[in-house]
Amino acid sequence: MTLANNTLDAAARRGGLNPALAPWLALAALAAAAFLLREQAAWLVRFPAELVVPLNEWISAVTWWFAEEAKSVFRAITWLLEWPMAWLQGFLHWLPWPAFMIGATAIALAAGGWRLAVFTLVALVYMLVSGYWKPSMNTLALVGVSVPLSLSLGFLLGIWAFKSRRAERAIMPTLDLMQTIPTFAYLIPILLLFGIGPVVGLIASAIYAAPPMVRNTLLGLQRVPSDIVESGRMSGSTRRQLLWWVQVPAALPTLMIGVNQTIMAALSMVIIAAVVGSFEDIGWELLTTLRKADFGRSLLAGVCIVLIAMVFDRASRGFALRTGLAPRRKGTFLERHRGLAVTLALMAAAIGLAHVFDSLHAYPNAWRVDLSQPLNAAVSFINTTFPATLEWIKNHILFYFLLPLRSGFELIVKPSTWGFEMSPTAAAVYVVAAGAAVAAAWRFLGWRMGVAATIVAVVYYVGLVNVPWPVFMAMVGIVAWQVAGRRVALFALGVMAAMLLTGVWTEVMLSIYLCGAAVVIAALIGCPIGIWAARNDRVSAVVNPIVDTLQTMPQFVYLIPVIMFFQVGDLPALLAIISYAVTPAIRYTEHGIRGVRPDTIEAARSMGCTERQILWQVQLPLALPEIMLGINQTIMFGLAMLTVSALVGTKELGQLVYRALTSADPGQGAIAGFSIAFIAIVTDRIVQAWSARKKAALGIG
Amino acid sequence: MLGVQSITRRLTMMTAAGALAAAVTVGSGTLPAAAEVPESSDPIVLALLEWTGQHVTTYMAGQALERMGYTVEYKTAGSYPSGTATADGDLTATLEVWDNNMGEFWPKLIEEGKVDTLGSVGLDGGEGFVYPKYVEEMCPGLPAWDAFVKCSEVFATAETMPNGRFVEYPADWGARATELIKGEGLAYDAVPAGSEGALVAELKSAAEKKQPLVMMFWAPHFILAHVPVGWVDIPNELRDKYSLQKPQMLKFAWPGMKDKWPAAYKFLQAFQIDTDTQQVLMDLVDNQGQDAREVTAKWLDEHPDVWKPWVEQAMM
What is the pLDDT of residue B180? Predict the structure, then answer.
């Protein structure tokens, strides 16, 4: 592919027509024909409803039949899991809070040193004082049962994939799907099979969180150096011994990364799963406060999750670093485990004291500190003090950015919005201006940017939802083919045809519109912040905790203030998606720029480059593949957030998924859910291929 | 929809009459010997749906059952999942299902006899187009229907210009207001809200800024204790045409309940809560941050005269 492209570039440099341009010229002809015919042939823009295949009804019928037949088996699983869950919950409620604090702090101390211990203690004090102790314990009970399940499931599947190539070939694409299907879509079949209640949320999170463990198990086992495996073989170990005594221990650090990611995923799903029935855990609190539009309380409850996630993250990473490093201490059992003994003794003392002082058992309500009022007051203050500013921001983003992208200048430019009518003169001015911009892009940035600019100019004129589907499909097909090869292109065309035939095309376009707009803004915000953080340690120290918080904050929390400020519509959804999806753009940009080799920068400096030149001409080009992977993650996060933003009244695939969930319609849920997953997978393949090629061309990675 | 409503209305009247008769015949007093209750020590599982009013209703009934000697558990569920779960027995009963929000699913279960209807909860609910009270100054003549029709420009935003902006129920609750607006050719654009929280946030935010707003809403709701509102007088023929009738709030039970816990079944049939009580308790929970279960427990302590007769009736 690379070779072919180099020849193409060479051909272009020689001045002949670039063969890679040919499909684009054909596309331009197709688009022009479709544009002229769109009045007569409306089916080019709106796929005729009578041709839609009622696949959703078939899927629903099959799922309902299966659920009915297999119900007893799945209900038995639910019933079985209720026991460990009830037991753990009972234990956590019985344990007086000082005892829990002592235990958790001691574990944190062992995992991450005194800093983590202090952080854990502060986090627990926050949960206690803010009045979220009981919900936090319930969430911990859910995670406490679901994570071990998820880890064992993931570990076993990972080993199976390692042992059998055929299993690997079946498992890997399934993992791709599992990680891109939106969380709400998961819940529909789970709801039908397992019923309702907290245990169902637990099962959902166990399944949702397994893929990272599978991936890391496989990766870890594959990366075990062959000499280690060889020496194991030479010592005469059987295949089973080789696996358990040699390969798994050697893969432990990678396995621990899997554990870390699985915990994070489980925690986020436990919150989302509150929609299908949980009780008095943090997810339930969040849904309740969302229902009341009580921002203060939802933020306070969300912070509990952020803190829990941070403690788990640091602790599991700490254990990951320590695995295999600690030398065995000598002495009697008590001497070796002095810390454990002290902890247990302190906990016993706390339990004893709690029998005397009731306040140690149940933290008195009167001692709670409620910070929600000032938080709500702050939202009200902004809302009432700057209504004109908020209105101004809203209208400008809507009129000049969002609405034209969705419906086109043709429809949006009106006296009430732009101050004038979209007359033929205005259209002519637009064509001239856009033509000039395209020519400039072509001349100074290369033909690829020229093509991109043309597409943007045309889309902005007619609107993304009005682009005829054959044109859109051809465009994606060409991009996929030129960047990622024929297989990805065929896959993209296949899934787009499926979206068309199942009647969700308009929603697909609306999803691409909303998510695309959010990604552009997220990149424009995130990349500069990432660059700044990479070049300044102090900025990095401030930015990183914020990024951590944004990423682990339950998505529900973002929804209330955006509606309060900007009212129901596309804008709050856009802002909610941005606030969640901006984090990878920041992280990967910082990581990419910091990853540029210091000797390269030194060389540039010794050649007399200014700091600005080093940034623009050395660091950024070298970090570009990594930054693109960050944008890729931003797209994935944005697509994941689509379903949650359905709660502020969007009209895209996420709304279809949410409606399918509330009306228990597995067919609709599957179609919309898979559509989101396929958009994600196609985008991912294209961006990954581009990034890999760029890395190869730059001679890095 | 209509068929279901008329059936349930008749049931409501019957149960209400029964409750009244019980209250009259049973004198003051002592509970009958509870030897036979509970008939089973298995927990009775009650559904917690998505709004505070329903939580108040459910906790009140649930705690009364506990005082009768039953074990009660609560599970949260969406209103559709609660239907299947009640039919399966995963939920023993679901109290306060709004018949305007039942979708296609509940009526099917009722028709097929997969759930038992226990009559009305006793709430006097309302549903319609709501606006913050100060809007009457911007559009004189409100709450009259004609004023609402003429004032569409008052509610216009840059996005919906020249039409008015009308905030509609979330898409999964059905779009009856949208149908009315389109069917009658009103100069409004209906914008679906996405969730109850979005509706509440719209109302809160508009009231803070004193901006015009009109939206589909229902009563009783806690936010109405917070933001003074008016209701547009929708003509009766339009209410009929677009099924905007007064909603009924119903109680449903798993059919197996009447054999497994007969007395509890009878109690839930008799159980009622009135709008004022629910609204006061909701306000304590939502605006004053009290715990719903503590609030209802206190209410039960203070009003034995209201609920003890239902227990006595159930024990007969």
Answer: 92
Q: Give the Cα separation of A559 and B202 in Å (integer).
A: 12
Residues A264 and A141 in one domain: yes
Q: Do residue B30 and residue B88 come from a single domain?
A: yes
- CATH number at B298 reads 3.40.190.10
Partner B contacted by A387 (CB < 8 A): yes
Q: Which residue segment(s) compose the domain that B255 sits in?
A: 2-124+248-315
pLDDT at B103 over 60: yes
Please give the DSSP secondary-structure letter assigned to residue B132.
E
Q: Tens digits of per-residue pLDDT, A249-284?
A: 888 888 888 888 899 889 888 888 887 766 688 988
* Peptide bond connecting B220 to the previous residue in cis, omega within 30 degrees of 0: yes
On chain A, the residues whose CB falls within 8 A of the CB of B84 are 192, 664
What integer pLDDT is reported at residue B144 of this predicted model?
A: 92
CATH of the domain at B148: 3.40.190.100
pLDDT band for position A330 (cuts 50, 70, 90):
low
Question: What strand order describes the sheet that includes B229-231?
Answer: B188-192, B164-168, B215-219, B126-132, B229-231
Dump pLDDT digits (tens) for A121-177.
999 999 999 989 999 999 999 999 999 999 999 999 999 999 999 999 999 889 988
CB count in 10 Å sphere of residue B49: 21
Q: How far apart are CA A674 and CA A502, in angstroms?
A: 11
Total of domains in chain B:
2
Say yes or no: A362 and A477 in one domain.
no
- Whether A664 and B84 lie within 8 Å, measured CB to CB: yes
Q: What's the structural domain count of chain A?
A: 3
Cβ separation B80–A564 shorter than 8 A? no
Say if the Cβ atoms of A196 and B211 lie within 8 Å: no
Query: Is A457 in the same domain as A547?
Result: no
CB of A166 within 8 Å of a chain B CB? The answer is no
CA atoms within 13 A on the CB side of A471: 27
- Which residues in chain B touch residue A380, judged by CB atoms under 8 angstroms apart? 208
Interface-testing mutation among B204, B210, B224, B254, with chain A (most A C-beta atoms within 10 A): B204
Tell if the CB–CB gap between A279 and B162 is shorter than 8 Å: no
- pTM assigned to the model: 0.85
- Residue range A170-218, pLDDT digits in tens: 998 899 888 888 888 888 888 888 887 778 888 888 999 999 999 999 9
In chain A, whose CA is at the least distance from the CA of B166?
A568
Whether residues B22 and B102 share a domain: the answer is: yes
The answer to the question of residue A374 being in a domain is yes
- Out of B78, B198, B222, whose CB is closest to A662? B78
> Smallest Cα–Cα separation from A208: which of A234, A245, A179?
A179
Q: How far is A653 from chain B (nearest CA, A)?
A: 13
Decide if B201 and A563 are in contact by the 8 Å CB cutoff.
yes
Whether A436 and A530 share a structural domain: no
The owner of tokens 């359905």 is: A646
Taking an 8 Å cut-off on Cβ atoms, the answer to whether B197 and A659 are in contact is: no
Residues B35 and B132 in one domain: no
What pLDDT band is residue A483 in, cutting at 50, 70 and 90? very high
Best residue in A79, A379, A568, A661 for a mutation probing chain B (most B CBs within 10 Å) = A568
Torsion angle of C-alpha atoms B123, B128, B131, B136, degrees rounded to 10: -110
- Nearest chain B residue to A79 by CA: give it: B90
